[in-house]
Amino acid sequence: MPVSITANSSARYAQSSLVKQNEAVTQGTLRMSTGQRVLSAADDAAAMAIGTSLKIENSGLKSAVLNATSGTSMLQIADGALGQISELMTRLQTLAVQASSGQYDDATRILLDGEFQGLKQEIDRLANSTTFNNVSMLKGGKDYLLGSGSSTVADGVKGVRFDELVVTGDRSFRYSYDAATEQLTMRRLDDATNTTQTVDLTPLLNASVGVGVDLQGSQALEVSFSLLGVTMTLGAGFQRGTSITNGMTSNPGANITLTTPTFTPGTMNFPATTAADMALIGVPFNATTGNLTLPITASGDSSLGGTVTLDAIPGVSYRIGLGAVGASGAASPDLVGAGTTVEVYIDAQDGTKTMVGTVTLGAVSSAAAGTGNIVLDIGGGLLTATDSGEIAPTHLTYKVGTGVVTGQDTISVDVPAMTLEALELTALSVTSQFNANEAIDKLKEALTVLNQGRAAVGAQQIRLEAVARNLGVISDNNESARSSLIDVDVSFEITEITNNQAMMQASIAMLSRANQVPDILLGLLK
């Protein structure tokens, strides 16, 4: 390469090196200032993606640790109150045994009963006032009896729970599932409001068991319809690829023609006794599948005046078109014609009729006398809640994971109600020997309930403490993994900055010398 005055290659090389070293020092300074090795996805795309994911997960884990710790404290409060109630009941038992002895007369027993009643009131006060963050733990709630128009087990439903703050009386509901959109819908049926709520299961199922995979083994998923006060627990029997709908099957036989028959289930004014009403129909109704089989009969060729009717079924009525509702247990009028609609009613226990669905027929005709049937799914997805008059335990659920699988990401505990009404102690007294003996038996039963509840609370306390410790270890390890991917290695980065600064100084020195070369070459011209 020739020696040139205009092309100072040495200076350009030194300048290029200086720019490179300056960028390296600047980058190192930024890393040290922020404490992060990866400042953007361009620095390390994989580390950025994994580190961000770990950061998000760790945030959830820390919240789960807090939940488990708070849950332990909450149960500790419940256990403390149960301990106090246990001591009070022990004293009640002592008074009852004392009053049942023959050396006391009824006047003395009345004196003992004064303390007895005071202790009972204190038990009731404790049960009603024991709360955590305004959540009552020992008061209990309304207990509902669950009824269904078909087998919920076949649909993969493990359980249904009703929120007494929303479900304030007897109710009926129907659930349906669209496999194409993976949306589970719950609809209220017992009034004319027809309130509906839909939950998209895709993010819930994918978050718990992976894309396109059903719940497996003991896995369960709680789906909350808060607007309706219903919580449904789905189990491994739930198939996300299978829809749950109320359809119909038409088997009219060779001589009867039904054009494009369809079935639409009823959606309102279903009393909470509807499931029981369906069961009273008898053989035509299958309580397992929810199917109602309606026999259909043709008297002859419809073009020659033959009729086609739905047969009489005790407890079932029909309404054709805009006509009147037929008598219970009577056959339907003639169906022959175009655009026929048939409303199907069943007898309710209160003497009214419940419209359970509508069959729409494009046309009906017959070629000769014959028989067949149509099968309507009137009970599928039907749920009823009836107040049992009992007091249910308090159901507490703690979120201890970052997913939604019941038993894996949530822990539940049922704390039995400890009010006098729940323990059946309201009417107890020791004013007589007979009353005292009765009190002894009732108190033993109540103590059994209390001890079982206290054992359940204690077991879940131990479990939540173990969960909190385990989550803490997982969180620490996640944070360590995230740190190794994202955070700066201080000793390494200081070394790199020192080296780059030294190289910068060398580059500056060489650039200064390179810029002197043209002056040296000009000296040759003198």
Structure notes:
- Among the domains are: 9-35 and 488-523; 58-138 and 429-481, Up-down Bundle (f41 fragment of flagellin, N-terminal domain).
- The longest helix is centred in the first third of the chain and has 55 residues, at 45-99.
- With 526 residues, it is an alpha+beta fold.
- β1 and β2 (135-136) form a beta hairpin.
- It has helices at 9-34, 45-99, 106-129, 202-209, 274-279, 420-423, 433-486, 490-514, 517-523, and strands at residues 131-132, 135-136, 141-148, 157-162, 171-178, 183-188, 196-200, 220-225, 230-234, 248-251, 256-259, 262-265, 285-286, 291-298, 308-310, 316-320, 337-347, 353-366, 370-377, 382-392, 394-399, 405-406, 410-415.
| Uncertain residue segments | none
> Could you report the average pLDDT, rounded to the nearest whole number?
86
Helicity level: 25-40%
User: At the first level of CATH, what is the class of the domain at 58-138 and 429-481?
Assistant: Mainly Alpha
**N- to C-terminal distance:** 24 Å
CATH H level of the domain at 58-138 and 429-481: which superfamily? f41 fragment of flagellin, N-terminal domain
What kind of sheet is the major sheet?
5 strands, antiparallel
Rg over CA atoms, rounded to whole Å, is: 38 Å
Overall 3D shape: flat
CATH fold annotation of the domain at 58-138 and 429-481? f41 fragment of flagellin, N-terminal domain
**Strand fraction:** 25-35%
DSSP summary, beta strand count: 23
The CATH architecture classification of the domain at 58-138 and 429-481 is: Up-down Bundle
Strand order of the largest sheet: 3-20-5-6-7
Secondary-structure-derived class: alpha+beta
Number of helical runs?
9
